[in-house]
Amino acid sequence: MEKQPLTLQNILHDLRIISKQNKNRRIPGLLCTAIMFAIFAVLTLIFLPIPLLIIAFLALTTYYTVRYLRERKDYADEAQVLRAALDRANISISIEKFSHVGQEYHYEPHAIHQQEGTKAAARFFYFSSGNSWRVPLIYRFYTWSKTHHLTFEGLQNISLAGDEFFYISLQGSPDISFIYPCKLFTLTKELEQAPAEAISE
User: Fold this and answer.
1) pLDDT tens-digit profile of 99-145?
2) C-alpha dihedral over 178, 183, 188, 191, to 10 degrees?
3) Residues 118, 108: Cα–Cα separation, whole Å
4) Element holding 21 (H helix, E strand)
5) CA–CA separation, 57 and 40 (whole Å)
6) What is the mean pLDDT of residues 178-186?
7) Spatial contact of 140 and 150, defined as CB atoms under 8 Å apart
8) β partners of residue 75
9) 2, 181 in Cβ contact below 8 A?
10) Does the structure show a pLDDT above 70 at 67?
11) Is the pLDDT of residue 197 over 60?
12) 88: Cβ–Cβ under 8 A, 6 or more apart, which residues?
């Protein structure tokens, strides 16, 4: 299969997906908790008017709402920094040798889809250097490509131990990264600097 040239525009498209996923994964479940206690307060007021219980539910609603607003402000500030970095297209490119695919369990206390105290399973591509890449929750990778778009299973199936990948990350935010198998993609001239060097528009 002919290799497809990988452009800066393609990379930024994928990095934006990761940035959005990271934000969604960290959306605090605090707002849902606050709404839940507010509903309990209203239902208690209607069906079981016990003042002490209503006050307790309202206090919990206030507590979780304040926590949510504080965290939302922190996330908004962080998102602004990430957007600026993406707009400047400050990325780092390295070539990594594939080792294996594995799964880890992460405790994400503010993920909206989790109950408190539970862990989320995340799949990773591991490389011989010790580096790893968390697989995003998207159906297809490289959707901008007409010929080389793959599902997770497809990418896993074509990846053999020792295969080389372009590992591309946003400078200053290593959790915003994407991988590209060297057997399918090649760098365009604008990206053909030494792999360890930073690329910037």
Assistant:
1) 999 988 765 554 444 444 456 678 999 999 999 999 998 889 999 99
2) 50
3) 8
4) helix 8-25
5) 7
6) 96
7) yes
8) none
9) no
10) yes
11) no
12) 200, 201
